[in-house]
Amino acid sequence: MDGAVSTGNKNDERQAASTASQETGPQDQPNYFASLRLIGGYLGASKFKMIGSILLATLATAAELVPVWAVYRVLEAAVDGTLNLAFIGGHALAALIGVVVGGLALGFALGLSHIVAFESIYRLRLDIARHMARLPLGYFQNRKSGDARKQVIDEPEKLELIVAHGLPEGVSSLATWLAVSIWLFAVDGRMALASIFVTPVSFVLMSAAMAQGGKRAGAYHAAAGRMNASIVEYLAGMPVVKIFNRTGQSLAETSRTVREYTAIETAWARDYIPMGGSFYTLILSNIVFILPVGLLLMQTGTLSLPTLLFFVLLGANYSRPLMKLFNQFHTLAHISMGATMVSDLLATPPQSDTKQSFRLPHHDIAFENVSFGYSDHDVLRNVSFVARTGEITALVGPSGAGKSTVASLVPRFWDVRAGRITLGGVDVREIGLDQLMDTVAFVFQDTFLFSDTIAANIRFGNPDASDEEVEAAARAARAHDFVSALPNGYETMLGEQGASLSGGERQRIAIARAILKDAPVIILDEATAFADPDNEAAIQEALGALTQGRTLIVVAHRLHTIAPADQILVMDDGEIVERGRHDDLRSNDALYARMWQDYTEARRLHYRSSTGHVHEEISQ
Amino acid sequence: MSAATNSEIRSDLESLARVWALSGPLRGKVAAGIGYKFLQSACLGIAFGAVIWVVNKTAGPESLTMADIWWVTGLMVISLAGQTLFGFLSVSNSWIASYETAGRLRLTILDHLAILPMRFHLSRHQGDTVTALTADMQMIESFMSDALPRIAQAFGLPLIVLGFLFWQDWQVGLVGLASIVIALPVFLWSSRRLAKLGIRRQDTQAEAGARMIEYAQGISVIRAFNRIAKGQESFGEGLKAFRDISIKMDDELTAKLVQIGKLLLLGAPLVIGIAGSRHIGGDTEVGTLLSSLVVIFALYAPLLGLIGVMELTRIADASLTRIDRIISAKPLPAPKAAETPDGFDLVFDRVAFSYVPDTPVLKDVSFTVPERSVTAIVGLSGSGKSTILNLIARFWDIESGQVRIGGADIRQIEAEQLNANVTMVFQNVYLFAGTIRDNIALGKDGATDAEIEAAAKAAQAHEFITKLPQRYETEIGEGGSTLSGGERQRLSIARAILKDAPIVLLDEATAAIDPTNERAIQFAFAELVKDKTLIVVAHKLSTVQSADQILVLGDGCIIERGNHDSLVDADGLYASLWKRWAQAADWRIGGKA
User: Fold this and answer.
1) Which domain, by its residues, includes B165?
2) What's the topology of domain A30-135+147-188+321-350?
3) How far is A265 from chain B (nearest CA, A)?
4) Whether the predicted pLDDT of A416 surpasses 60
5) pLDDT confidence tier of residue A28, bands split at 50, 70 and 90
6) Residue B315 sits in the same domain as residue B463
7) pTM for the model
8) What ipTM was estimated for this complex?
9) Which residue, A351, A497, B271, B572, shows the most beta carbons closer than 10 Å to its own?
């Protein structure tokens, strides 16, 4: 029998207490088993190994009871006076075999269960990868930086604990508990009752303790949230705090949240400890009840000494397997909280894909009364325009006007809520995703580059491109000069261990990648946003190289770059409020004219010089 | 135990010693928690003692009387009462001590972080520090409340049982001890070895995992370029490698650890054999045999709990390392003889600096900024422009040379005074959770509403603030109102205007924002820098044309200096940057300008 009994890990307790208290909430059933449900579907293919593991774990349980049986038999023989060396040797050997077989069987059970775990997690991750490939691209747009890692690595990895340990240990705990219970009752029902009596009592105490502690769960979580937020802010705001000489104030505030948190923790503990602490005592104190009851029964002559000793041997440890199950349940509940991140991903409906291919007569993009919104608010209302092949269509407007949304609807980051978008006359939802992606190239403000060589990153645009073509694309994107200045040139590794490029340089690599793709529709959303003056000119030249004979849609804040566009769409608050060419719009005396004025003015402003005080443009 | 195992054991013991040291003034409670846990086990031992007494008595010629039964029952009541009482005391002491220690440690670390130089904060992963204050503290809490008492519990009952065995028959005692003496060193040795294996497993997994993460992060690009099949192939390879490593290493890890744990139980057959044959040989009474056998599992079962304790110690070790890294970091040296700046001119005198040893960022930089003049720093990206601002604010200390404000070496100026004289507007705006008013008021202690509003007006922020439903009381940050990048920038300028420091350090943002915001920000900056000593890292060359002095930085040195006109005439790097900037201003997409 295994003795790994926790004396109580209060973090787990508190976790469980708080989940328990959420249980009483109106709508949410606590998802204790969310993690089990998540991995459950992937266990099937390893079912023989799993069954093998369970059988071995059960065998281990049985084997571990052999030494107990052997001791019991020797006790019995000693009391009867029938003990001899052969008997002792036989039973010592049986105990030895029991220990060895038990250890080996448990070891193999765990080995198998680990294989089952890693195989099922493998299948789960494969599914995650496949599902990611079918989700709308917009799903990934608002993802936080660590999310990708959590979704494919961290959260699935935690399931290992459940399958690899929870499964065999859970089964063996359950089997031990069942076997011991049956054995105890088979030997003597009265003594069995005396042995197990205190176990349910202690679990009642535990649930009372959890209910008691659960009352503070809300306050506890609020305090923990405040403390963590305050600590993060204290650290993230440190430069500002220091420069404004507010270290003392900021420290005092953060320290206050720490003290509050400690106070709530302590108060929680004081509520929880009287009954929770008693649980951990009582659960191991079965012997205290076995002995007096046993002695009384012996006195009445209905119980033999060996039987009493049998109950001391087996009954004293009666609760241990239950404790292990209890701890495993905690682990399960704990891991289940994180499992929702993965199950939510898998539950997100994939994007529809007709897989059809059309012969497109041209590459005009038409928005026809397009409306779009996220759950709570409208982002676009009734947007209609046509971006023609061979022309440049520019989107301008204040922050939050919906320009980027228009750009991202074309490659179907999201699907429209009303109206439709056509490409070459065909609804983009009718065009197979493969063809759509082949037809549209886009470069957005945030560029993702792979941890690979620069050449490989550019070649991502066209895997069959020759070295000359890669270099030509880089030249066109004005990236060639800085790339060849690097010690390893195009073979320079990017990424964590590799070279770090500036924002402008990264954008030029991304543009080279898009140039190599040679797609008839190009969408640029703030593709030069991170440029410093040196880079900006270079990038803008590069973008010029992309335009001939293509449909180009550009979102830009630097208005001079889009002034010559064939069509400028001025957006405000989700609508197109003006459209036309630069000169017409300037004379319109509406939003565009004002933006243009702001823009040129901002470009003329100087920081004052010591002689001229505030510069003349400012004191207009 | 051999010397070799001794040195292996020490690491575990060192972790324990470190926790002990960290618990500081709460050591008494920690010790009490452990001590009471031991007493709790001892009280459980009373029950086993009673069993032994009963066995010895009934196995002999005598039989039990009712008085004996009452006496045993009384003992059991005492045992239970003692266990409950000491259990309660143990849990109370160790839990409360663990919370209070964690609370105290958090406060100590927060205090320490406040006096650490910005270099500490900027040069390491902020996430690590947050982890040390949150997750690592919970780890320490768990360790102190759970693992420490568990050690007492693991040894308590076995020690008592062992003592009894020796008292009864020292030979059986020795046999009982044998498997422990064999198993414990193997435990410790193998847990160390397995820990090392575990680290190796993490490393190999990290490699394979990186390919999977890359797929997940780059999924948008992969799909945009129709490379899903290729991407999934690479993901699949990483995934397979990950699975195979996991299976292989875990086979070595877990299964073995469990099997080694079972070594302890080998004591059971040994005791059966030896105690039995000694009884047959007539060396011991039947009572001795019976009582030895009946306590045998009480000897081994608690000890198995040590496997879990060792796992916890290993996990806690990583937390301790992170915590120690913060505690042992040195604060900025305080000035020996504090100097007060006389005026607000600023001098860089042959300054050299590097973030990473042997890769100098600034090699030999000298320049003078007269009071109330404008100095612009321009140069290629990565040339160290922002570093100069960081050095003036003393976020880092220079390696050689001097930075002087008003004639005083900034290392000899009290930090408070230096900060009072310098204000910095960062590229990345940081606003605190709280109201707009709070965020602006940060600039000046006890600022009045009128002052706050005036600063907001000067920073071109008043107008958009008054359009918000809660106006100055609008909550920003998570869960609050969302402001655009330009609006956030203007709030940070309002804060700096309110501070009204004589020296302004300005790091222009590179990212483009919409024209209306850009114009407003330019006006806000003009207000901020009025009559101040200004040092600006400029990306928009148009803004620095009228600067008194332009420093062109290249390769860690100032390669050109002068005003706009003289630099354009000099036909060097600045002239070419300016030419490109001017070209860009004329350039249009499609090249049809």
Assistant:
1) 14-169+284-327
2) ABC transporter transmembrane region fold (1.20.1560)
3) 7
4) yes
5) very low
6) no
7) 0.79
8) 0.80
9) B271
Is some CB atom of chain A closer than 8 A to the CB atom of B446?
no
* pLDDT greater than 70 at residue A21: no
Task: List, for chain B, all residue ranges whose pLDDT scores fall below the cut of 70.
Answer: 1-13, 123-127, 191, 194-195, 198, 251-259, 381-382, 477-481, 510-512, 583-593
Question: Whole-angstrom Cα distance, residue A584 to residue B195?
Answer: 73
Same domain, B467 and B578: yes
Q: What is the CATH number of the domain that holds B117?
A: 1.20.1560.10
Q: How many Cβ pairs within 8 Å bridge chains A and B? A: 550
What confidence score (pLDDT) does residue B234 get? Answer: 80
- Does the pLDDT at position A33 exceed 50? yes
Contact B106, B35 (CB under 8 A): no
On whether residue B1 sits in a domain, the answer given is: no
Contact yes or no for A88 and B273 at CB 8 A: yes
Task: Please check whether residue B335 touches A, CB under 8 A.
Answer: no
Tell me the residues of chain B between 210 and 239 that have a Cβ less than 8 Å away from chain A: 210, 212-228, 230-232, 235-236, 239
Q: Which residue of B has its CA nearest to A557?
A: B514
Are B369 and B464 contained in the same domain?
yes
Nearest-by-Cβ selection for B142 from A9, A295, A463: A9
Would residue B240 count as lying in a domain? no
* B11: amino acid identity, one letter: S
Q: Are residues B300 and B153 in the same domain?
A: yes
Whole-angstrom Cα distance, residue B259 to residue B242? 25
Determine contact: A499 vs chain B, CB below 8 A.
no
Residue of chain A with shortest Cα separation from B588: A561
Total count of domains within chain B: 2
Q: Kindly indicate the confidence band of residue A335, based on its pLDDT and cuts at 50, 70 and 90.
A: confident
- Residue in B with minimal Cα distance to A510: B221
Report if residue B241 sits inside a domain. no
Cβ contacts of A530 on chain B, cutoff 8 Å: 510-511
A107–B256: do the CB atoms touch at under 8 Å?
yes
Q: Does A48 touch chain B (CB under 8 A)?
A: no
Q: How far is B40 from chain A (nearest CA, A)?
A: 8
Confidence grade of residue A532 (pLDDT, cut at 50, 70, 90): low
Question: Token digits for B173?
Answer: 């005692």
Q: Using one digit for the tens of pLDDT, what is the confidence trace for B196-230?
A: 776 777 777 777 777 787 788 778 777 777 777 77
Domain A365-604 classified CATH 3.40.50.300?
yes
Distance, CA of B10 to chain centre: 25
Is B108 buried (19+), middle (13-18) or exposed (0-12) by CB count in 10 A? middle
Collect all residues of chain A within an 8 Å Cβ-Cβ radius of residue B549: none
How do the residues of chain A divide into helix, strand and coil, expressed in percent and rounded to 5? 60, 10, 30
pLDDT in the model for residue A97 = 93
Task: Name the H helices within A477-590.
Answer: 480-485, 503-517, 533-545, 582-587
Long-range CB contacts (< 8 A, 24+ apart) of B286-289?
B286/A78, B286/A79, B286/B59, B286/B60, B287/B55, B287/B56, B287/B57, B287/B59, B287/B60, B288/B56, B288/B168, B288/B169, B288/B172, B289/A74, B289/A78
A355: left (phi over 0), alpha (psi -120 to 50) or beta: left
B411 interface with A at CB cutoff 8 Å = no
Q: Where are the domains of chain A?
A: 30-135+147-188+321-350, 365-604
- Whether residue B406 lies inside any domain: the answer is yes
Scanning A446-485 for CB atoms below 8 A from B yields: 448, 450-451, 460-461, 463
Whether residue B297 is found in the same domain as residue B436? no
